[in-house]
Write a structure and sequence with these properties.
single chain; alpha/beta; globular
């Protein structure tokens, strides 16, 4: 049985971010996958890179306990979805801190270039955006975000072959109108299908 993990970064427990992460898992569960949901804000993950992270990086100290706990969750999963809104055309501080601390040397990549602990995992970076996917492509922002997250972080640095960027786009934060709710529902169903298709 495959294991799916969704990691979200949004301070609002009722945000679309959370519903999208859960929808991905629901789709996978419908095909028999085991699932786990991690809300970084709810669990109190500290995104700040500390001296403990620095000493681990320099081989002068152990992996910080909170980091090791998150790494075990990833190691136990086959498919990982990282779900967050896009702020100023990149991931928010909570998700960036998660990447900095958890996908670190000795786990996400190795100094000698050997195969990382996550190389055989499947990753989907699900980005919630205010602008449309077409705008991201036409403006060049898609190329920038894709290169940062998928091409350089996952493919080149971590050696992950199966990684992709998925948009939940054209959103208006705080819009509770009927058209907005219908659009959100369509996004949720699409992401549920994505989870099912990967199970």
């Amino acid at each position: 049985m495959s294991k799916f993990l969704a990691i979200t970064a949004n301070p609002d427990p009722e945000s679309l971010t959370q519903y999208i992460g859960k929808a991905f898992l629901e789709g996978a569960a419908s095909k028999g996958a085991d699932t786990e949901f991690v809300d970084l804000h709810a669990v109190g993950f500290d995104p700040r890179y500390t001296i403990a992270d620095r000493t681990q990086y320099l081989d002068e100290g152990p992996m910080p306990d909170d980091v090791a706990q998150m790494q075990r969750k990833i190691a136990d999963a086959d498919v990982i979805a990282m779900v967050c809104p896009i702020y100023w055309f990149t991931m928010p501080a909570m998700m960036k801190g998660f990447v900095d601390r958890v996908l670190c040397r000795h786990f996400g990549y190795n100094r000698d270039g050997s195969k990382s602990a996550i190389a055989d995992k499947k990753f989907r970076f699900i980005a919630l955006t205010g602008s449309s996917k077409d705008w991201y492509r036409e403006s060049g922002m898609h190329e920038s975000l894709y290169n940062q997250v998928v091409n350089y972080m996952f493919h080149q640095y971590c050696g992950v072959n199966d990684a992709d960027l998925v948009y939940v786009d054209d959103l208006n934060m705080g819009d509770g109108s009927q058209p907005a709710r219908e659009a959100a529902s369509e996004h949720i169903q699409r992401i549920k299908k994505l989870g099912a298709s990967m199970a």
